[in-house]
Amino acid sequence: MSHCSLSFVRKLATKAKSPKKSSSSTTLANLPSGWEALNYFKDGKPPELKVDAEDKEYPEWLFSLKSRRATLEDLVERVNKFYAQGGVDAVAENIPWSELRRMFRLANIRRIRRENKEKAEEF
């Protein structure tokens, strides 16, 4: 029977190369500001500013951005109102699924925060 001799040599890791600095440094002075920052095409121009434009020239969803979103209490109140009028069917007919989903999400967030607060007070 022959014996194999194995030898292990531990080597140190090679030193990592430092990243090369680019010739064009990114500073605040080089970044576009204001309206020009909306240009996301490589060779494009920024969109034209419409100072005296009418509302019909803008998409409908743009005006919904300013409206206040319903709170959990508002959503629960609406659901309870329609539920009292006609049960689950009335809720399903009158309240969009997106608002119901938001109500469940907000209620879940509130429950998690309450439980976390209770756990923190135990310590």
TrEMBL record:
Subcellular location: Mitochondrion
Cellular compartments per GO CC: mitochondrial large ribosomal subunit
Keyword flag Amino-acid biosynthesis: no
Entry keyword set: Mitochondrion, Ribonucleoprotein, Ribosomal protein, Transit peptide
InterPro entries to which the protein is assigned, alphabetical: Ribosomal_mL54
Top-level taxon of origin: Eukaryota
GO-annotated molecular function: structural constituent of ribosome
Family statement drawn from the similarity comment of this UniProt entry: Belongs to the mitochondrion-specific ribosomal protein mL54 family.
Record-linked PANTHER family: 39S RIBOSOMAL PROTEIN L54, MITOCHONDRIAL, LARGE RIBOSOMAL SUBUNIT PROTEIN ML54
Entry protein name: Large ribosomal subunit protein mL54
